[in-house]
Amino acid sequence: TADxxxxxxxxxxxxxxxxxxxxxxxxxxxxxxxxxxxLTSNEKYMHLIEDMSQIQITTIHKFAISLLRKxxxxxxxGFDSQISSETFERRNIYHSxxxxxxxxxxxxNPNFVHQLTIPSYExxxxxxxxxxxxxxxxxxxxxxDTSLLGxxxxxxxxxxxxxxxxxxxxxxxxxxxxxxxxxxxxRDCMINIHKFVENNSIRSIGINYKYLFIDxxxxxxxxxxxxxxxxQKVFGNNCRLFAVxxxxxxxxxxRGATLSAFEKVGGNSDxxxxxxxxxxxxxxxRLLDIFDVVFTKMGAQRLLPYENEDHLxxxxxxxxxxxxxxxxxxxxxxxxxxxxxxLFNEIRFxxxxxxxxxxxxxxxxxxxxxxxxxxxxxxISNLVKAAENTELVIKDTEGGNLFRLPSTRDLxxxxxxxxxxxxxxxxxxFIESNYVSMKLQLSNFNGYNSEEKLDELVRILDEYFMLLLxxxxxxxxxDFETRPVLVVLREIYEATKPWITYSSDRELQxxxxxxxxxxxxxxxxKYSREYLTVNMIGEHLKINITTYQExxxxxxxxxxxxxNIICTTIHKSKGLEYGTVILPYTADDISxxxxxxxxxxxxxxxxxxxxxxxxxxxxxxxxxxIDTESMEQEQEESRILxxxxxxxxxxxxxxxxxxxxxxQCWGNFMEVIE
Length: 674
Fold this sequence. Notes:
The chain has 674 residues and is an alpha/beta fold. Helix content is 47%, strand content 11%.
């Protein structure tokens, strides 16, 4: 209210569902306050900009973690507890439990191993993924009533047994092991907060937010809604809840989101005030009028909750000719090389158009971005890899590549050379890494015996490290035995400067250094309670590199006047905006319920699941309604297209596969555009 005095740091919490959206929200608020300061010269707006570094703008899971830290004593763990996202220990537990199960089954029936339709190592991965799908919906499998499982699927008739004898015991042991280490599983954070709220056991925790803002509310699941309402009460009678969302953008059904989120929170009661917004502040109004034709068609088929009043309006008109607003690229999907060639030619065309436009007026970072939006991560990999053979630089924004970066691999080569200090293969790899950067002429070793080759490699390292550190190779090895390992690694890193050898480009050097620091921070955090050795670091790197673990790297935001080309999933693009949006894959059947592997859901207290064998066959457990699933999938895919199109500021490009005969796909909706 006008008379209220609001402290934005202690009175307001703002929650969204992705890190990028939280950062975008923070950035926009700073921009607004700066505009207010320019217009009014009132210093309070400068103070508000300073306060933005402390305001609670975060993802819902990070918010839950911050609250759990205040409740940790009642959970039986110390205040200095750590949040664990480690998967290796968990996998080991599953491996052990599955081995015991298979041994017992084989003892009962010697032919059991031959009845397995899935290799044991794949089965192990499948069980973990099955459990993770439930965690994504904030469902704790440890508390599921296994008597309600019903009949198992035909292709894996023993799967219910696996749930009871492998999955649940593994998760219980993993949780207990973490508790003993004074740690909390990242997956359990939301579940634990919900339990506190549900049992009315969470007390006043020294937080009295007056305003709780929830962005993208349509993406909440039932557990999150109940938790948010419970926390509102904990924060006090004066706490006001403000939920913002658009049902047309509900695209997280796999995480338990439904179209009834606003009903479940009580949005129809007299306690709530409802506001509608159909004004768009980023997209060219002409483009929105074109989109309306597509969305109206999806609405008429009951695939999108779209009525006349949902037509978005905008006063924004960009400097772009009408014929460039929506472009269709026709190509043949069966010819992968031709498909990529046509797509990349279109990207080049769009890049030139943006460069011409940027010479006429100053464009924002978002307006200078071409975003290739796809459904799946493997599509990103395919596109980025194909672009490596061209002059186009397409950035992968998924950020899970820390263990594939040169900075990580160089460190691993150093560690292997230290832990295998007289192994010729590891020494050669280290000498040729960015730490030493000496290209060995192996022909010079012709005629040497094994011992002489080793002596020559050690001689090279002796000379190199005597020059930089005044130490021979033996002395470097001894340092790791007598001094703190991180200190020795730092000395070698600073002396050899591998980032300079890696690249002469300053920005690439900064990226190398930033991700080296990121890696060491994660290693330090993981082993914070143990005496760290070089062997432990080597084992950690080996596991994560060889098993292709996804871990976020650091990508420095560089202000540039150049066109930025990125490739990301539509889910990750949520809440963001781009000058040009390109949809390369529009021919996928959005009505098909087939998928490979297990898919799990939890409906009305009952666990249901399906399994695709990879040969086009699908099995369904009791209670699985195929027709309902097919319709819900079509509806969600339609909402995903809605999200993708409305990310565009200026124009959209879509690719039509001339070889496709699919009847229900995005391309058929886009065809209504003349």
